[in-house]
């Protein structure tokens, strides 16, 4: 993997206006991603990870901070410059059927990005490339003229991935791409992403609440809670020894194969789940943190350098108090 910085994310903040007032969905998130690297964005639903994924591609406006792509501030690009860049920046959505145009055959769906971004290619070249890519994702030529509603969820997701990869992008944001699929199909899609990534050198931002899947794909993990970053770490170190109490709770919630052990486990984290409209003072995780102390209600933990390249936002990370269930 190259260490050249492809994507630089600095203090990215995203607000939504809602009927109940302003909701800060992402709050000053920062990280770097090198060419060909894979980053897992993890956290429970509502933590802001999908909004952050969209902000990275300028699909939602920023309330603060910046996203730099190969050194260029995405927010400052003109419309035509951004349109050209879209060839390098792709997204795969959670709901594969909803993300495909029902009026297009799957062959037409996968051809569309080529027709938009590579108009110099003739019809034969487009057809050949589409055929190769669909074969790559396990869909034979007999399926090219079928429509999305004729496919299973797993097959539609393969089409979505083929569509995202057909331009050989430098970055693909995968937003919960396997969470709507059966476990066995999940495994096949993850394997496919691994292979495509290896063959094309594509960088991935893989958004998921499934830490077992993230472990198979990503070299780094960024943990979010109520829009803020809790921990950022190389996967190996994160899975072996999480520094943040929330990371520990997430890891302990990964299902175990033995149903008796699974049934005996308590829920993910006791305590009140804070409202994103009125986040707690001090550390936003404190209402669920099993090792919170008085200072946690008062002081906002800085997102600071910990060991090696790891960063963590916890007043007590140095005490190594990440509680096990
Ligand atoms: S700062 Fe306090 S409440 Fe927050 S995670 Fe650390 S120990 Fe828990």
Short description:
This protein has 325 residues and is α/β, with parallel strands linked by helices.
Number of strands: 12
Describe the sheet with the most strands: 8 strands, mixed
How many discrete structural domains?
Answer: 2
CATH topology of the largest domain: the name is Rossmann fold
Overall mean pLDDT stands at 89
Bound molecules: iron/sulfur cluster
Low-pLDDT regions: none
The radius of gyration over CA amounts to 21 Å
CATH superfamily of the largest domain: P-loop containing nucleotide triphosphate hydrolases
Q: What CATH first level of the largest domain would be assigned?
A: Alpha Beta
- H/E element sequence: EEEHEEHEHHHEHEHEEHHHEE
Distance between the termini: 36 Å
Basic shape:
globular
| Structural class category | alpha/beta
Helix content: 25-40%
């Amino acid at each position: 993997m190259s260490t050249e910085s492809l994507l630089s994310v600095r203090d990215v903040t995203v607000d939504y206006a809602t009927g109940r007032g302003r909701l800060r969905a992402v709050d000053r998130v920062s990280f770097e991603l090198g060419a060909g690297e894979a980053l897992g964005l993890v956290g429970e639903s509502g933590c802001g990870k999908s909004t952050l994924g969209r902000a990275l591609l300028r699909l939602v406006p920023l309330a603060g901070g910046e996203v730099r792509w190969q050194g260029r501030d995405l927010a400052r690009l003109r419309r035509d410059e951004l349109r050209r860049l879209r060839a390098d920046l792709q997204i795969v959505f959670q709901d594969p059927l909803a993300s495909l145009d029902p009026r297009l055959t799957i062959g037409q769906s996968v051809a569309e990005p080529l027709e938009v971004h590579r108009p110099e290619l003739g019809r034969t070249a487009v057809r050949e490339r589409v055929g190769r890519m669909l074969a790559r994702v396990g869909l034979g030529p007999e399926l090219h003229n079928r429509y999305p509603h004729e496919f299973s969820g797993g097959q539609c997701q393969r089409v979505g991935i083929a569509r995202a990869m057909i331009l050989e992008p430098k970055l693909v944001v995968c937003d919960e791409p396997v969470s709507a699929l059966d476990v066995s199909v999940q495994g096949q899609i993850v394997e496919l992403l691994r292979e495509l990534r290896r063959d094309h050198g594509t960088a991935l931002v893989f958004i998921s609440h499934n830490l077992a899947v993230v472990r198979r794909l990503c070299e780094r993990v960024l943990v979010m809670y109520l829009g803020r970053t809790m921990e950022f770490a190389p996967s190996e170190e994160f899975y072996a020894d999480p520094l943040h109490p929330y990371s520990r709770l997430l890891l302990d919630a990964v299902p175990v194969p033995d149903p008796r052990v699974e049934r005996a486990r308590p829920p993910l984290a006791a305590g009140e789940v804070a409202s994103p409209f009125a986040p707690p003072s001090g550390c936003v995780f404190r209402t669920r943190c099993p090792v919170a102390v008085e200072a946690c209600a008062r002081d906002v933990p800085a997102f600071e350098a910990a060991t090696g390249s790891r960063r963590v936002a916890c007043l007590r990370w140095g005490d190594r108090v990440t509680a096990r269930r």
